[in-house]
Amino acid sequence: xxxxxxxxxxxxxxxxxxxxxxxxxxxxxxxxxxxxxxxxxxxxxxxxxxxxxxxxxxxxxxxxxxxxxxxxxxxxxxxxxxxxxxxxxxxxxxxxxxxxxxxxxxxxxxxxxxxxxxxxxxxxxxxxxxxxxx
Length: 134
Description:
Elements: H1 8-28, H2 31-40, H3 46-78, H4 80-97, H5 104-117, H6 120-131
Helix pairs in contact: 1-6, 2-3, 3-4, 3-5, 4-5, 4-6
């Protein structure tokens, strides 16, 4: 850490703040519209729509709970920056592909992958905490 420029952490803070803001928006802003999107993907009864919307919503967080320890361990061994890039590119591709799904199962699968690639926000927080001077 002694070879870094004294103000490099400020640039990293600004970039990671913006990335964290965008990632947070990507996760939270879709939620109110998720059941409307599921409804457009088929003809469902109210019970089916409720079930598919719930599964579509929950699968991401279920997968996050399972893979977070793996990504944390890899971040500790391989580096946080490479894990931030993995998460950023993975989530961007998956969220982009969600606009092209033709049925609810494809959406559930992509939401599964979104959870698999998640981890940007905690990783960004850990990186800034490690780089910022006391």
